[in-house]
Amino acid sequence: RIVYCAGQFVPEEKAHVGLFDRGFLFGDGVYEVTAVIGGRLIDNDLHLARFKRSLAELAIPLPASLEAIEEVQQTLIARNGLVEGTVYLQATRGEADRDFLYPEGLVPTFVAFTQARQLVATKAQKEGIAVALAPDPRWARRDIKTVMLLGQVLAKREAKASGFADVWLTQEGQITEGASSTAYIVTSDGKILTRGNSPVILPGCTRQALLKLCERHGLMIEERSFSPAEAEAAAEAFQTSASSLVTPVVRIGETVIGNGKPGLLTRALQSYYLEAAG
Ligand code: PDD
């Protein structure tokens, strides 16, 4: 695989980041994941805009213009012959001797790579998944897409050990979001609920694109938080992300959702999203 590191396209074995990189020592950096379907970047303007915002929130300079960053992404797709998968971008504050406080003038470390993987018509998308519920262990600024992901790593590992494919996180009696996805339910009267954007969740790019499609198709949306009890009583449930697209959730904890199969509205949303991507 050809990756992008230190301003160059190099084979992955030749790519190295320094010991004193603050991404490594402090989790002091941000990332993005964009889907590639049919060799094309999906919702990439939204991902690049969020990348820029995440960096600005941490006062890390944008490592290159958004146009130049997209050129890196496109070059990686072409050089690796990527048809379906993801492109990962990461920028950290840069390298400096270890200290919580950082000196002025650091040069961000910017890397990017592709991952070939099936994104469309996966088993999870066709059959739906079971998600666990667990307390949200993360910090207070989840709207910033930082590489500080230990909460998600541990929550997902725990869920997997208990036989679940993924996990939805809870705080103050409400679901915040999935460990790496946006959470939605459909009420018995056909309304789609998903939490409004705030520092409590990551503002999903797939969410933004999907809500637009819902509006276009005249579907009812309500942006508000919902409780585990509401989710367990829902007619349908699903989650979205760049890497899972629209994935039905057919069990939450021990509670089967609907008839245990992907819901009709969820399946309609899967095809609307793919249509728009195609
Ligand atoms: N995760 N919420 C969290 C906590 C996430 O990590 C993600 C994405 C999302 C969905 O965002 P989007 O629709 O923009 O992908 C919501 C990516 C895929 C990851 O960490 O690999």
Helical proportion, percent range: 25-40%
Oligomer state equals single chain
- Return the average pLDDT rounded to an integer: 98
Structural class: alpha+beta
Number of strands: 15
Q: What about the largest sheet?
A: 9 strands, mixed
Number of domains: 2
Question: How many H/I helices?
Answer: 8
The separation of the N and C termini measures 26 Å
Q: From the 3D structure, determine the CATH topology of the largest domain.
A: D-amino Acid Aminotransferase, Chain A, domain 2
Low-pLDDT segments, ≥5 res: none
> Any idea what the CATH architecture of the largest domain is?
Alpha-Beta Barrel
Q: What small molecules does the structure contain?
A: N-(5'-phosphopyridoxyl)-D-alanine
Describe this structure in words.
This protein is an alpha+beta fold and 278 residues long. The chain has helices at 22-26, 44-57, 66-79, 123-127, 150-161, 205-216, 228-232, 264-277; strands spanning 2-5, 8-11, 29-37, 40-41, 85-92, 109-116, 129-135, 166-171, 174-178, 182-186, 191-194, 220-223, 236-241, 245-252, 255-256. The protein folds into two domains: 2-116, D-amino Acid Aminotransferase, Chain A, domain 1 (2-Layer Sandwich), CATH 3.30.470; 123-277, Alpha-Beta Barrel (D-amino Acid Aminotransferase, Chain A, domain 2). It has eight helices and 15 strands. The strands form two sheets. Strands 7, 8, 9, 10, 11, 12, 13, 14 and 15 form a nine-stranded mixed β-sheet that branches. A six-stranded antiparallel β-sheet has the order 2-1-6-5-3-4. A hairpin with a 3-residue loop joins strand 13 and strand 14. The longest helix has 14 residues, at 44-57. Bound molecules: N-(5'-phosphopyridoxyl)-D-alanine. Residues 33, 177, 180-182, 202, 204-207, 240-243 line the site of N-(5'-phosphopyridoxyl)-D-alanine.
